[in-house]
Amino acid sequence: MKALFGTTLCFLGLLRADAAAPVAADIPFLAPEAAARQMTVPAGFRVTLFAGEPDVTQPIAFCIDDRGRLWVVENHSYPNWNADAGKDRVVIFEDTNGDGRFDRRTVFATGLNYVTGIEVGFGGVWLVNSPHLLFIPDRDGDDRPDGPPEVLLEGFGREGIHNLVNGFTWGPDGWLYGGHGGSSYSKLGKPGTSEEQRVHVNGGVWRYHPTRHVVESFAQGTTNPWGIAFNEHGHIFISNCVLPHLYHMVQGGYYERRRPSPLSRHAYATLDTIADHRHWVGADWAKSRGGADQLAVGGGHAHSGAMIYLGDSFPDDYRGVMFMVNIHGKRVNNDILARRGSGYVGRHGKDFMLAADRRFLGVGLQYGPDGSVFLSDWSDPDECHTRKPDRATGRIFKISYGDRKPALAPVNLAKLSDAELVKLQLYKNDWFVAHARRLLQERAAAGTLASTVRPALEEMLEKEKDATRQLRALWALHVMSAGDEPLRLRLLNHPQEHLRAWAVQFELEDNKVSEAMLAKLEAMASAEPSPLVRLYLASACQRLPHEQRWVTLTRLAARTEDATDANLPLMIWYALEPLVPANPQRALALASQSKFPRLREFVARRLTSP
User: Quick one: angle between helices 584-593 and 550-557, nearest 10?
Assistant: First the structure.
Protein backbone atom coordinates (compact mmCIF):
# COMPACT_ATOMS: atom_id res chain seq x y z
CA MET A 1 0.00 0.00 0.00
CA LYS A 2 2.32 2.74 1.15
CA ALA A 3 5.44 3.18 3.14
CA LEU A 4 5.67 3.62 6.90
CA PHE A 5 5.56 7.27 7.85
CA GLY A 6 7.31 7.23 11.21
CA THR A 7 10.97 6.53 10.42
CA THR A 8 14.04 8.46 11.37
CA LEU A 9 17.73 8.59 10.82
CA CYS A 10 18.50 8.76 14.48
CA PHE A 11 16.15 5.96 15.51
CA LEU A 12 17.68 3.22 13.41
CA GLY A 13 20.74 2.18 15.37
CA LEU A 14 23.00 3.35 12.55
CA LEU A 15 26.76 3.42 12.34
CA ARG A 16 28.85 6.21 10.90
CA ALA A 17 28.80 6.28 7.11
CA ASP A 18 32.61 6.57 6.90
CA ALA A 19 34.35 5.16 9.95
CA ALA A 20 37.81 6.11 8.77
CA ALA A 21 36.98 9.76 8.17
CA PRO A 22 33.89 11.06 10.01
CA VAL A 23 32.14 13.91 8.27
CA ALA A 24 32.67 17.12 10.20
CA ALA A 25 29.70 19.40 10.73
CA ASP A 26 31.46 22.33 9.04
CA ILE A 27 32.26 20.53 5.76
CA PRO A 28 30.31 22.13 2.91
CA PHE A 29 27.27 20.22 1.73
CA LEU A 30 24.79 20.60 -1.10
CA ALA A 31 21.98 23.12 -0.77
CA PRO A 32 18.48 21.61 -1.09
CA GLU A 33 17.97 22.42 -4.79
CA ALA A 34 21.47 21.27 -5.71
CA ALA A 35 21.00 18.04 -3.74
CA ALA A 36 17.90 17.28 -5.81
CA ARG A 37 19.61 18.08 -9.12
CA GLN A 38 22.61 15.89 -8.39
CA MET A 39 20.72 12.75 -7.41
CA THR A 40 21.19 9.89 -9.89
CA VAL A 41 18.01 8.08 -10.98
CA PRO A 42 17.18 5.82 -13.96
CA ALA A 43 16.56 7.32 -17.40
CA GLY A 44 13.21 9.06 -17.65
CA PHE A 45 13.04 9.92 -13.95
CA ARG A 46 13.73 13.28 -12.35
CA VAL A 47 14.14 14.53 -8.78
CA THR A 48 12.88 17.93 -7.64
CA LEU A 49 12.76 19.67 -4.29
CA PHE A 50 9.30 19.72 -2.70
CA ALA A 51 10.43 21.44 0.52
CA GLY A 52 13.73 22.22 2.21
CA GLU A 53 15.20 24.06 5.15
CA PRO A 54 14.35 26.45 6.66
CA ASP A 55 10.74 25.60 5.73
CA VAL A 56 11.10 22.03 7.00
CA THR A 57 13.61 20.70 9.52
CA GLN A 58 14.18 17.30 11.16
CA PRO A 59 11.37 15.53 9.22
CA ILE A 60 11.05 12.34 11.22
CA ALA A 61 7.70 11.24 9.77
CA PHE A 62 5.14 12.23 7.17
CA CYS A 63 1.85 11.13 5.67
CA ILE A 64 -0.45 12.29 2.86
CA ASP A 65 -4.05 13.34 3.46
CA ASP A 66 -7.14 12.98 1.25
CA ARG A 67 -6.24 16.23 -0.52
CA GLY A 68 -2.71 15.16 -1.41
CA ARG A 69 -1.13 17.40 1.24
CA LEU A 70 1.88 16.28 3.27
CA TRP A 71 1.60 16.27 7.06
CA VAL A 72 5.14 16.31 8.43
CA VAL A 73 6.37 15.74 11.98
CA GLU A 74 9.42 17.84 12.79
CA ASN A 75 11.29 16.17 15.63
CA HIS A 76 13.51 18.55 17.60
CA SER A 77 13.45 16.67 20.90
CA TYR A 78 15.85 13.88 19.95
CA PRO A 79 18.03 12.86 21.73
CA ASN A 80 17.25 14.96 24.81
CA TRP A 81 13.66 13.77 25.11
CA ASN A 82 13.04 15.28 28.51
CA ALA A 83 15.27 18.35 28.39
CA ASP A 84 13.87 19.40 25.01
CA ALA A 85 10.28 18.38 25.64
CA GLY A 86 7.68 20.32 23.71
CA LYS A 87 9.84 21.14 20.69
CA ASP A 88 8.26 18.75 18.17
CA ARG A 89 5.51 19.97 15.87
CA VAL A 90 3.22 18.97 12.97
CA VAL A 91 3.34 21.06 9.78
CA ILE A 92 1.14 20.78 6.66
CA PHE A 93 2.70 21.33 3.23
CA GLU A 94 0.48 21.90 0.20
CA ASP A 95 1.22 22.32 -3.51
CA THR A 96 -1.76 24.38 -4.69
CA ASN A 97 -0.59 25.08 -8.26
CA GLY A 98 0.68 21.61 -9.15
CA ASP A 99 4.27 22.61 -9.93
CA GLY A 100 5.74 19.94 -7.63
CA ARG A 101 6.83 22.29 -4.86
CA PHE A 102 4.89 23.39 -1.80
CA ASP A 103 3.49 26.91 -1.77
CA ARG A 104 1.36 26.80 1.37
CA ARG A 105 2.68 25.89 4.81
CA THR A 106 0.51 25.57 7.93
CA VAL A 107 1.67 24.76 11.45
CA PHE A 108 -1.00 22.43 12.82
CA ALA A 109 0.31 21.53 16.27
CA THR A 110 3.23 22.48 18.52
CA GLY A 111 4.43 21.60 22.01
CA LEU A 112 4.84 17.89 21.23
CA ASN A 113 7.58 15.54 22.38
CA TYR A 114 9.00 12.18 21.35
CA VAL A 115 6.87 11.96 18.18
CA THR A 116 7.89 9.13 15.83
CA GLY A 117 4.86 8.61 13.61
CA ILE A 118 1.79 10.26 12.10
CA GLU A 119 -1.40 9.46 10.18
CA VAL A 120 -4.62 11.31 9.47
CA GLY A 121 -8.21 10.11 9.33
CA PHE A 122 -11.44 9.79 11.29
CA GLY A 123 -11.57 13.50 11.94
CA GLY A 124 -8.10 14.06 13.27
CA VAL A 125 -4.43 13.26 13.49
CA TRP A 126 -2.88 10.12 15.00
CA LEU A 127 0.55 10.48 16.60
CA VAL A 128 2.99 7.95 18.00
CA ASN A 129 4.22 9.98 20.94
CA SER A 130 5.92 7.58 23.36
CA PRO A 131 4.77 6.68 25.96
CA HIS A 132 1.42 7.53 24.36
CA LEU A 133 -0.65 7.07 21.26
CA LEU A 134 -2.33 10.43 20.76
CA PHE A 135 -5.29 11.64 18.71
CA ILE A 136 -5.64 15.35 17.96
CA PRO A 137 -9.19 16.07 16.77
CA ASP A 138 -9.87 18.34 13.80
CA ARG A 139 -13.38 17.26 12.88
CA ASP A 140 -14.24 20.45 11.00
CA GLY A 141 -11.11 20.13 8.86
CA ASP A 142 -9.95 23.72 9.35
CA ASP A 143 -6.34 22.64 10.06
CA ARG A 144 -6.60 23.80 13.67
CA PRO A 145 -6.93 21.34 16.58
CA ASP A 146 -10.41 21.20 18.08
CA GLY A 147 -8.87 20.64 21.49
CA PRO A 148 -5.90 19.14 23.32
CA PRO A 149 -4.48 15.74 22.31
CA GLU A 150 -6.45 12.73 23.50
CA VAL A 151 -4.46 9.86 25.04
CA LEU A 152 -5.69 6.63 23.42
CA LEU A 153 -2.92 4.34 24.68
CA GLU A 154 -0.17 4.51 27.26
CA GLY A 155 2.78 2.28 28.04
CA PHE A 156 5.16 2.55 25.09
CA GLY A 157 8.69 1.90 26.34
CA ARG A 158 11.61 4.31 25.94
CA GLU A 159 14.54 2.08 26.85
CA GLY A 160 16.02 2.17 23.36
CA ILE A 161 16.59 5.83 22.58
CA HIS A 162 16.80 5.18 18.85
CA ASN A 163 15.19 1.72 18.92
CA LEU A 164 11.56 2.11 19.88
CA VAL A 165 7.96 2.42 18.72
CA ASN A 166 7.14 4.05 15.40
CA GLY A 167 4.27 4.26 12.89
CA PHE A 168 1.98 4.57 10.94
CA THR A 169 0.33 3.15 7.86
CA TRP A 170 -3.30 2.19 7.25
CA GLY A 171 -3.69 -1.50 6.49
CA PRO A 172 -6.21 -2.74 3.91
CA ASP A 173 -8.13 -4.30 6.80
CA GLY A 174 -8.83 -0.92 8.43
CA TRP A 175 -6.18 -1.13 11.19
CA LEU A 176 -3.34 1.30 11.84
CA TYR A 177 0.02 -0.52 11.73
CA GLY A 178 3.32 0.49 13.30
CA GLY A 179 6.78 -0.88 13.99
CA HIS A 180 8.55 -1.43 17.31
CA GLY A 181 12.26 -1.74 18.10
CA GLY A 182 13.50 -4.71 20.10
CA SER A 183 15.42 -2.63 22.64
CA SER A 184 12.26 -1.10 24.12
CA TYR A 185 9.55 -2.95 26.03
CA SER A 186 5.96 -1.73 25.90
CA LYS A 187 2.97 -2.64 28.04
CA LEU A 188 0.02 -1.15 26.21
CA GLY A 189 -3.47 -0.27 27.30
CA LYS A 190 -5.93 2.56 27.66
CA PRO A 191 -5.18 4.85 30.60
CA GLY A 192 -6.02 2.98 33.77
CA THR A 193 -5.76 -0.53 32.26
CA SER A 194 -4.59 -3.12 34.77
CA GLU A 195 -1.20 -4.80 34.34
CA GLU A 196 -2.64 -8.21 33.47
CA GLN A 197 -4.83 -6.78 30.72
CA ARG A 198 -2.07 -4.88 28.93
CA VAL A 199 -0.63 -5.94 25.57
CA HIS A 200 3.11 -6.60 25.66
CA VAL A 201 5.26 -5.66 22.66
CA ASN A 202 9.02 -6.05 22.43
CA GLY A 203 9.97 -5.63 18.80
CA GLY A 204 8.05 -6.36 15.62
CA VAL A 205 4.74 -5.01 14.34
CA TRP A 206 1.73 -3.81 16.32
CA ARG A 207 -1.65 -2.44 15.27
CA TYR A 208 -4.52 -0.31 16.57
CA HIS A 209 -8.13 -0.29 15.42
CA PRO A 210 -9.54 3.25 15.01
CA THR A 211 -13.18 2.49 15.83
CA ARG A 212 -12.96 -0.56 18.09
CA HIS A 213 -10.09 1.10 19.99
CA VAL A 214 -8.16 -2.10 20.65
CA VAL A 215 -4.43 -2.71 20.32
CA GLU A 216 -2.72 -5.94 19.30
CA SER A 217 0.76 -7.31 18.84
CA PHE A 218 0.72 -8.46 15.22
CA ALA A 219 4.14 -10.16 15.09
CA GLN A 220 7.08 -10.28 17.50
CA GLY A 221 10.81 -9.94 16.92
CA THR A 222 13.30 -8.48 14.42
CA THR A 223 15.82 -5.83 15.42
CA ASN A 224 14.39 -2.42 14.67
CA PRO A 225 11.73 -2.30 11.96
CA TRP A 226 11.27 1.22 10.58
CA GLY A 227 9.14 0.69 7.52
CA ILE A 228 5.93 -1.21 6.74
CA ALA A 229 4.37 -1.76 3.32
CA PHE A 230 1.50 -3.85 1.94
CA ASN A 231 1.55 -5.48 -1.48
CA GLU A 232 -1.48 -5.82 -3.77
CA HIS A 233 -2.57 -8.97 -1.97
CA GLY A 234 -2.43 -7.31 1.45
CA HIS A 235 0.69 -9.09 2.67
CA ILE A 236 2.93 -7.16 5.04
CA PHE A 237 6.63 -6.50 4.46
CA ILE A 238 9.04 -4.54 6.63
CA SER A 239 12.45 -3.01 6.26
CA ASN A 240 14.66 -3.67 9.26
CA CYS A 241 17.69 -1.77 10.48
CA VAL A 242 20.73 -3.87 11.46
CA LEU A 243 21.14 -7.48 10.32
CA PRO A 244 18.68 -8.72 7.66
CA HIS A 245 16.84 -5.90 5.97
CA LEU A 246 13.64 -7.55 4.66
CA TYR A 247 10.89 -9.66 6.22
CA HIS A 248 7.47 -10.93 5.22
CA MET A 249 5.47 -10.53 8.42
CA VAL A 250 2.90 -13.20 9.24
CA GLN A 251 0.28 -12.54 11.90
CA GLY A 252 1.36 -14.28 15.09
CA GLY A 253 4.89 -14.94 13.84
CA TYR A 254 8.08 -14.78 15.90
CA TYR A 255 11.12 -13.41 14.08
CA GLU A 256 14.86 -13.56 14.70
CA ARG A 257 16.21 -11.12 17.28
CA ARG A 258 19.54 -9.63 18.29
CA ARG A 259 18.82 -10.19 21.96
CA PRO A 260 16.46 -12.58 23.81
CA SER A 261 12.99 -11.57 24.93
CA PRO A 262 10.61 -13.20 27.43
CA LEU A 263 7.90 -12.90 24.78
CA SER A 264 9.77 -15.38 22.55
CA ARG A 265 10.88 -17.73 25.33
CA HIS A 266 9.27 -20.86 23.85
CA ALA A 267 9.55 -19.98 20.19
CA TYR A 268 12.73 -22.18 20.05
CA ALA A 269 13.22 -21.26 16.38
CA THR A 270 12.17 -18.07 14.62
CA LEU A 271 11.08 -17.02 11.17
CA ASP A 272 13.89 -15.80 8.97
CA THR A 273 14.45 -12.96 6.53
CA ILE A 274 13.09 -13.52 3.04
CA ALA A 275 16.02 -11.68 1.44
CA ASP A 276 18.36 -13.91 -0.55
CA HIS A 277 21.07 -11.24 -0.34
CA ARG A 278 22.61 -8.58 1.89
CA HIS A 279 23.37 -4.95 1.19
CA TRP A 280 26.69 -5.24 3.00
CA VAL A 281 29.72 -7.54 2.96
CA GLY A 282 31.95 -9.05 5.60
CA ALA A 283 31.43 -11.22 8.66
CA ASP A 284 30.47 -8.38 11.01
CA TRP A 285 27.63 -6.01 10.22
CA ALA A 286 29.05 -3.52 12.74
CA LYS A 287 32.06 -3.06 10.49
CA SER A 288 30.10 -2.51 7.29
CA ARG A 289 30.79 1.22 7.32
CA GLY A 290 31.15 2.51 3.81
CA GLY A 291 33.87 1.75 1.32
CA ALA A 292 33.73 0.47 -2.24
CA ASP A 293 32.88 -3.11 -1.25
CA GLN A 294 29.78 -2.03 0.69
CA LEU A 295 28.64 0.39 -1.97
CA ALA A 296 28.91 -2.28 -4.66
CA VAL A 297 26.32 -4.52 -2.98
CA GLY A 298 23.86 -1.85 -1.85
CA GLY A 299 25.50 0.51 0.59
CA GLY A 300 25.40 -0.98 4.08
CA HIS A 301 23.30 -2.63 6.79
CA ALA A 302 21.11 0.31 7.93
CA HIS A 303 17.69 0.73 6.28
CA SER A 304 14.75 3.05 6.78
CA GLY A 305 11.30 3.32 5.27
CA ALA A 306 9.42 0.86 3.10
CA MET A 307 7.31 1.36 -0.01
CA ILE A 308 5.83 -1.17 -2.39
CA TYR A 309 5.09 0.89 -5.47
CA LEU A 310 1.45 0.62 -6.52
CA GLY A 311 1.14 4.02 -8.19
CA ASP A 312 0.27 4.74 -11.81
CA SER A 313 3.00 6.94 -13.26
CA PHE A 314 6.18 4.82 -12.99
CA PRO A 315 6.80 2.20 -15.72
CA ASP A 316 4.91 -1.02 -15.06
CA ASP A 317 8.16 -2.87 -14.28
CA TYR A 318 8.26 -1.01 -10.97
CA ARG A 319 4.79 -2.09 -9.83
CA GLY A 320 5.03 -4.35 -6.81
CA VAL A 321 8.72 -3.59 -6.24
CA MET A 322 9.75 -2.82 -2.66
CA PHE A 323 11.83 0.32 -2.13
CA MET A 324 13.77 1.22 1.02
CA VAL A 325 16.37 3.82 1.97
CA ASN A 326 19.91 2.63 2.58
CA ILE A 327 21.35 5.11 5.06
CA HIS A 328 25.09 4.49 4.78
CA GLY A 329 24.88 3.98 1.05
CA LYS A 330 22.99 7.28 0.63
CA ARG A 331 20.67 5.63 -1.86
CA VAL A 332 17.36 3.89 -2.35
CA ASN A 333 17.60 0.10 -2.66
CA ASN A 334 14.87 -2.04 -4.12
CA ASP A 335 14.00 -5.70 -3.74
CA ILE A 336 11.95 -7.83 -6.12
CA LEU A 337 9.31 -9.86 -4.25
CA ALA A 338 8.42 -13.32 -5.59
CA ARG A 339 6.25 -16.08 -4.15
CA ARG A 340 7.97 -19.11 -2.66
CA GLY A 341 5.92 -21.77 -0.88
CA SER A 342 3.62 -20.17 1.67
CA GLY A 343 5.57 -16.91 1.57
CA TYR A 344 8.07 -14.94 -0.45
CA VAL A 345 11.67 -14.48 -1.44
CA GLY A 346 13.18 -11.01 -1.88
CA ARG A 347 15.75 -10.70 -4.65
CA HIS A 348 18.18 -7.82 -5.09
CA GLY A 349 17.13 -5.22 -7.61
CA LYS A 350 19.28 -2.52 -9.12
CA ASP A 351 19.59 0.47 -6.79
CA PHE A 352 17.01 3.10 -7.74
CA MET A 353 18.54 6.37 -6.51
CA LEU A 354 22.01 7.54 -5.49
CA ALA A 355 22.49 10.84 -3.63
CA ALA A 356 25.54 13.05 -4.14
CA ASP A 357 25.01 15.06 -0.96
CA ARG A 358 27.11 13.72 1.93
CA ARG A 359 24.44 14.92 4.33
CA PHE A 360 21.68 12.85 2.71
CA LEU A 361 20.13 10.61 5.34
CA GLY A 362 16.85 9.37 3.92
CA VAL A 363 14.01 8.55 6.27
CA GLY A 364 10.76 7.56 4.56
CA LEU A 365 9.21 7.33 1.13
CA GLN A 366 5.73 6.90 -0.32
CA TYR A 367 3.86 7.55 -3.53
CA GLY A 368 1.13 10.14 -3.85
CA PRO A 369 -1.95 10.92 -5.96
CA ASP A 370 0.02 11.72 -9.12
CA GLY A 371 2.05 8.51 -8.83
CA SER A 372 5.25 10.34 -7.94
CA VAL A 373 7.25 9.41 -4.85
CA PHE A 374 7.98 11.70 -1.90
CA LEU A 375 11.32 11.03 -0.16
CA SER A 376 12.18 12.67 3.17
CA ASP A 377 15.74 13.48 4.21
CA TRP A 378 16.81 14.08 7.82
CA SER A 379 19.91 15.77 6.32
CA ASP A 380 22.80 15.58 8.76
CA PRO A 381 26.60 15.25 8.61
CA ASP A 382 26.63 12.39 11.11
CA GLU A 383 24.56 9.50 12.36
CA CYS A 384 22.48 8.86 15.44
CA HIS A 385 25.07 7.43 17.81
CA THR A 386 26.74 10.82 18.10
CA ARG A 387 23.42 12.21 19.37
CA LYS A 388 24.30 15.62 17.98
CA PRO A 389 21.79 16.25 15.19
CA ASP A 390 21.83 19.39 13.07
CA ARG A 391 18.39 20.76 13.88
CA ALA A 392 18.42 23.40 11.16
CA THR A 393 18.25 21.06 8.16
CA GLY A 394 15.73 18.82 6.42
CA ARG A 395 14.40 18.16 2.92
CA ILE A 396 11.56 16.44 1.13
CA PHE A 397 12.21 15.45 -2.47
CA LYS A 398 9.80 14.39 -5.19
CA ILE A 399 10.76 11.67 -7.69
CA SER A 400 8.68 11.71 -10.88
CA TYR A 401 8.70 9.90 -14.19
CA GLY A 402 8.33 11.55 -17.60
CA ASP A 403 5.73 14.20 -18.28
CA ARG A 404 2.68 11.96 -18.19
CA LYS A 405 -0.19 13.34 -16.14
CA PRO A 406 -2.22 11.04 -13.89
CA ALA A 407 -5.53 9.79 -15.26
CA LEU A 408 -7.35 11.29 -12.28
CA ALA A 409 -6.33 14.72 -11.03
CA PRO A 410 -5.84 15.13 -7.26
CA VAL A 411 -9.07 16.11 -5.57
CA ASN A 412 -10.46 16.33 -2.07
CA LEU A 413 -11.63 12.74 -1.85
CA ALA A 414 -13.68 13.51 1.23
CA LYS A 415 -16.06 15.47 -1.00
CA LEU A 416 -16.78 12.52 -3.28
CA SER A 417 -20.02 10.57 -3.05
CA ASP A 418 -20.20 7.05 -1.69
CA ALA A 419 -20.70 5.73 -5.23
CA GLU A 420 -17.60 7.56 -6.45
CA LEU A 421 -15.55 6.12 -3.59
CA VAL A 422 -16.74 2.63 -4.54
CA LYS A 423 -15.66 3.17 -8.16
CA LEU A 424 -12.20 4.20 -6.97
CA GLN A 425 -11.68 0.65 -5.68
CA LEU A 426 -10.87 -0.26 -9.30
CA TYR A 427 -8.45 2.60 -9.91
CA LYS A 428 -4.85 1.71 -10.84
CA ASN A 429 -3.13 4.03 -8.37
CA ASP A 430 -3.63 2.41 -4.97
CA TRP A 431 -3.30 5.81 -3.28
CA PHE A 432 -6.87 6.53 -4.39
CA VAL A 433 -8.02 3.03 -3.51
CA ALA A 434 -6.69 3.16 0.04
CA HIS A 435 -7.95 6.65 0.83
CA ALA A 436 -11.37 5.89 -0.63
CA ARG A 437 -11.60 2.70 1.41
CA ARG A 438 -10.74 4.52 4.63
CA LEU A 439 -13.39 7.16 3.87
CA LEU A 440 -15.98 4.41 3.39
CA GLN A 441 -14.87 3.02 6.75
CA GLU A 442 -15.32 6.42 8.38
CA ARG A 443 -18.77 6.91 6.90
CA ALA A 444 -19.86 3.42 7.94
CA ALA A 445 -18.70 4.11 11.51
CA ALA A 446 -20.62 7.40 11.48
CA GLY A 447 -23.76 5.70 10.15
CA THR A 448 -23.93 7.91 7.05
CA LEU A 449 -23.11 5.33 4.37
CA ALA A 450 -25.65 4.92 1.56
CA SER A 451 -27.53 1.61 1.41
CA THR A 452 -26.34 1.09 -2.17
CA VAL A 453 -22.67 0.73 -1.21
CA ARG A 454 -22.75 -2.86 0.05
CA PRO A 455 -24.52 -4.34 -3.01
CA ALA A 456 -22.20 -2.40 -5.32
CA LEU A 457 -19.14 -3.85 -3.60
CA GLU A 458 -20.64 -7.34 -3.51
CA GLU A 459 -21.23 -7.10 -7.25
CA MET A 460 -17.63 -6.02 -7.73
CA LEU A 461 -16.46 -8.97 -5.66
CA GLU A 462 -18.57 -11.32 -7.78
CA LYS A 463 -17.89 -9.96 -11.26
CA GLU A 464 -14.26 -8.84 -11.17
CA LYS A 465 -11.89 -11.55 -12.37
CA ASP A 466 -8.58 -10.13 -11.13
CA ALA A 467 -7.79 -11.24 -7.57
CA THR A 468 -6.40 -7.85 -6.57
CA ARG A 469 -9.69 -6.15 -7.53
CA GLN A 470 -11.72 -8.82 -5.77
CA LEU A 471 -9.62 -8.26 -2.66
CA ARG A 472 -10.25 -4.52 -2.82
CA ALA A 473 -13.98 -5.17 -2.77
CA LEU A 474 -13.64 -7.63 0.12
CA TRP A 475 -11.45 -5.28 2.16
CA ALA A 476 -13.91 -2.42 1.66
CA LEU A 477 -16.79 -4.62 2.79
CA HIS A 478 -14.81 -5.68 5.83
CA VAL A 479 -13.82 -2.21 7.01
CA MET A 480 -17.49 -1.22 6.66
CA SER A 481 -18.42 -4.23 8.86
CA ALA A 482 -20.44 -5.54 5.91
CA GLY A 483 -18.53 -8.78 5.35
CA ASP A 484 -20.55 -11.29 7.40
CA GLU A 485 -19.99 -14.99 8.09
CA PRO A 486 -22.22 -16.27 5.25
CA LEU A 487 -20.03 -14.30 2.84
CA ARG A 488 -16.84 -15.64 4.40
CA LEU A 489 -18.14 -19.22 4.27
CA ARG A 490 -18.77 -18.81 0.54
CA LEU A 491 -15.34 -17.33 0.03
CA LEU A 492 -13.69 -20.31 1.70
CA ASN A 493 -14.71 -22.25 -1.43
CA HIS A 494 -13.55 -19.54 -3.82
CA PRO A 495 -11.19 -20.68 -6.61
CA GLN A 496 -8.79 -17.81 -5.83
CA GLU A 497 -6.38 -18.60 -2.97
CA HIS A 498 -6.09 -14.98 -1.81
CA LEU A 499 -9.85 -14.73 -1.26
CA ARG A 500 -9.84 -17.95 0.76
CA ALA A 501 -6.88 -16.74 2.82
CA TRP A 502 -8.44 -13.40 3.71
CA ALA A 503 -11.75 -15.06 4.56
CA VAL A 504 -9.86 -17.12 7.15
CA GLN A 505 -8.16 -14.06 8.63
CA PHE A 506 -11.34 -12.01 8.82
CA GLU A 507 -13.30 -14.83 10.42
CA LEU A 508 -10.89 -14.93 13.36
CA GLU A 509 -10.47 -11.19 13.80
CA ASP A 510 -12.70 -11.19 16.89
CA ASN A 511 -11.07 -14.38 18.30
CA LYS A 512 -14.17 -16.55 18.05
CA VAL A 513 -15.74 -18.85 15.50
CA SER A 514 -19.07 -20.64 14.99
CA GLU A 515 -19.36 -24.43 14.95
CA ALA A 516 -20.03 -24.41 11.21
CA MET A 517 -17.00 -22.27 10.51
CA LEU A 518 -14.76 -24.31 12.80
CA ALA A 519 -15.76 -27.50 10.99
CA LYS A 520 -14.95 -25.85 7.67
CA LEU A 521 -11.52 -24.71 8.86
CA GLU A 522 -10.74 -28.18 10.17
CA ALA A 523 -11.72 -29.70 6.81
CA MET A 524 -9.55 -27.19 4.96
CA ALA A 525 -6.54 -28.19 7.06
CA SER A 526 -6.65 -31.59 5.36
CA ALA A 527 -7.83 -30.65 1.87
CA GLU A 528 -6.61 -27.09 1.18
CA PRO A 529 -4.26 -27.16 -1.86
CA SER A 530 -2.63 -23.73 -1.34
CA PRO A 531 0.31 -23.37 1.06
CA LEU A 532 -0.60 -19.70 1.41
CA VAL A 533 -4.07 -20.55 2.72
CA ARG A 534 -2.60 -23.22 4.99
CA LEU A 535 -0.35 -20.49 6.40
CA TYR A 536 -3.40 -18.35 7.16
CA LEU A 537 -5.02 -21.35 8.85
CA ALA A 538 -1.96 -21.90 11.06
CA SER A 539 -1.86 -18.21 11.90
CA ALA A 540 -5.58 -18.12 12.70
CA CYS A 541 -5.22 -20.99 15.16
CA GLN A 542 -3.47 -18.64 17.59
CA ARG A 543 -6.73 -16.69 17.84
CA LEU A 544 -8.83 -19.75 18.66
CA PRO A 545 -9.52 -21.00 22.19
CA HIS A 546 -7.02 -23.73 23.03
CA GLU A 547 -9.44 -26.65 22.81
CA GLN A 548 -10.58 -25.60 19.34
CA ARG A 549 -7.05 -25.70 17.88
CA TRP A 550 -6.23 -29.39 18.11
CA VAL A 551 -7.91 -30.83 15.02
CA THR A 552 -6.72 -28.10 12.65
CA LEU A 553 -3.15 -28.20 13.97
CA THR A 554 -3.00 -32.00 13.87
CA ARG A 555 -4.12 -32.04 10.25
CA LEU A 556 -1.80 -29.23 9.19
CA ALA A 557 1.15 -30.98 10.86
CA ALA A 558 0.42 -34.09 8.80
CA ARG A 559 0.90 -32.29 5.48
CA THR A 560 4.13 -33.81 4.16
CA GLU A 561 4.51 -31.15 1.47
CA ASP A 562 4.99 -28.43 4.11
CA ALA A 563 7.85 -30.05 6.02
CA THR A 564 10.45 -27.82 4.39
CA ASP A 565 8.33 -24.68 4.06
CA ALA A 566 9.94 -21.55 5.53
CA ASN A 567 6.86 -20.61 7.58
CA LEU A 568 4.38 -23.42 8.21
CA PRO A 569 6.21 -25.72 10.66
CA LEU A 570 7.05 -22.78 12.91
CA MET A 571 3.62 -21.14 12.68
CA ILE A 572 2.04 -24.47 13.63
CA TRP A 573 4.40 -24.67 16.60
CA TYR A 574 3.57 -21.16 17.79
CA ALA A 575 -0.12 -22.08 17.92
CA LEU A 576 0.56 -25.46 19.52
CA GLU A 577 3.07 -24.38 22.19
CA PRO A 578 0.62 -23.19 24.89
CA LEU A 579 -1.38 -26.41 24.48
CA VAL A 580 1.54 -28.71 25.28
CA PRO A 581 1.85 -28.29 29.08
CA ALA A 582 -1.94 -28.37 29.46
CA ASN A 583 -2.38 -31.67 27.58
CA PRO A 584 0.97 -33.51 27.24
CA GLN A 585 -0.53 -36.79 25.96
CA ARG A 586 -2.41 -35.16 23.13
CA ALA A 587 0.64 -33.09 22.25
CA LEU A 588 2.80 -36.20 22.09
CA ALA A 589 0.22 -37.93 19.90
CA LEU A 590 0.20 -34.95 17.53
CA ALA A 591 3.99 -34.91 17.45
CA SER A 592 4.21 -38.62 16.67
CA GLN A 593 1.86 -38.19 13.69
CA SER A 594 3.54 -35.01 12.45
CA LYS A 595 5.61 -34.95 9.27
CA PHE A 596 7.78 -32.16 10.70
CA PRO A 597 10.88 -33.36 12.61
CA ARG A 598 11.31 -29.97 14.29
CA LEU A 599 7.78 -30.11 15.66
CA ARG A 600 8.54 -33.39 17.42
CA GLU A 601 11.72 -31.84 18.83
CA PHE A 602 9.88 -28.75 20.06
CA VAL A 603 7.11 -30.70 21.79
CA ALA A 604 9.66 -32.77 23.69
CA ARG A 605 11.60 -29.67 24.65
CA ARG A 606 8.48 -27.86 25.85
CA LEU A 607 7.47 -30.80 28.01
CA THR A 608 10.77 -30.54 29.88
CA SER A 609 10.75 -26.74 30.17
CA PRO A 610 9.46 -24.88 33.24
Answer: 30
